[in-house]
Amino acid sequence: MNETSGNGSSHASLRTGGALELQGVEAGYGESIILRGVSLQVRPGQVVCLMGRNGVGKTTLMKTIMGLLRAKKGTIRYAGTDYTAKTPDIRAKAGIGYVPQGRDIFPQLTVEENLRLGLEAADTKLRNAGIPESVFAQFPVLRDMLRRKGGDLSGGQQQQLAIARALVAEPTLLLLDEPMEGIQPSIVMDIERVIESIKASKRMGVLLVEQSLTFASAIADYSYVLDKGAIVAEGSSASLSEEQVRRHLAV
Ligand SMILES: Nc1ncnc2c1ncn2[C@@H]1O[C@H](COP(=O)(O)OP(=O)(O)O)[C@@H](O)[C@H]1O
Ligand SMILES: [Mg+2]
């Protein structure tokens, strides 16, 4: 399935990405406003965690960054370009990859077909190179399951597929919405390792929605705490006190 030996990696190094910058973003559903003036930044190569209780607007924020939801106010800039009014497709082509909450892969399609769909977000050169080997190095289990239907995979394998699908387009910014949610501990460690390797590669920025304070503080360069649609605390992992975070995370 890898038609060419591929020069994807040399090509990828040309994609440098840039900073994601949100300024005063307001968004919601219909008349209801969920996000209230959210400002945040993810610099290239940084892992930034977004924390907060259920229902405070974390997923809404991810959707707004991806353009699936329109920002009513504020601006969303990436690598110096204003994407506030742009479609999700244009944002994906600009290098923003998105792994939605709840690992929504296509259950009726094979693993390979799911991965090929990820290539749709890639430029022509990457698309022609096919699914990059690096994906199978990161997720060996997917190579063995290429012909299986997505729906036949375990929850943890589906999550790996969802992340792999975003990675095949070689994004420069990855949005990960609660990738560890509802997954057995052994797979949680696999996914943590993948996020760690992404961080070590310094090839993309990551905005990670994560409830585990332990993992968040271990991996994040910087964290934001969202409450009722507003950023209520932020800082480097060292400067954000546990008490400060727990206060906003406690139910
Ligand atoms: N499609 C939708 N239509 C209307 N309201 C929604 C929709 N999705 C989420 N909400 C509401 O928006 C708020 C924030 O939800 P969400 O962003 O999913 O929170 P989180 O990801 O932090 O758990 C909640 O009150 C939720 O009920
Ligand atoms: Mg959510």
Automatic annotation (TrEMBL):
<keyword id="KW-0029">Amino-acid transport</keyword>
<dbReference type="InterPro" id="IPR017780">
    <property type="entry name" value="ABC_transptr_urea_ATP-bd_UrtE"/>
</dbReference>
<keyword id="KW-0067">ATP-binding</keyword>
<dbReference type="GO" id="GO:0005524">
    <property type="term" value="F:ATP binding"/>
</dbReference>
<dbReference type="Pfam" id="PF00005">
    <property type="entry name" value="ABC_tran"/>
</dbReference>
<keyword id="KW-0547">Nucleotide-binding</keyword>
<protein>
    <submittedName>
        <fullName>Urea ABC transporter ATP-binding subunit UrtE</fullName>
    </submittedName>
</protein>
<dbReference type="InterPro" id="IPR027417">
    <property type="entry name" value="P-loop_NTPase"/>
</dbReference>
<comment type="similarity">
    <text>Belongs to the ABC transporter superfamily.</text>
</comment>
<dbReference type="InterPro" id="IPR003593">
    <property type="entry name" value="AAA+_ATPase"/>
</dbReference>
<keyword id="KW-0813">Transport</keyword>
<dbReference type="InterPro" id="IPR003439">
    <property type="entry name" value="ABC_transporter-like_ATP-bd"/>
</dbReference>
<dbReference type="InterPro" id="IPR052156">
    <property type="entry name" value="BCAA_Transport_ATP-bd_LivF"/>
</dbReference>
<feature type="domain" description="ABC transporter">
    <location>
        <begin position="20"/>
        <end position="251"/>
    </location>
</feature>
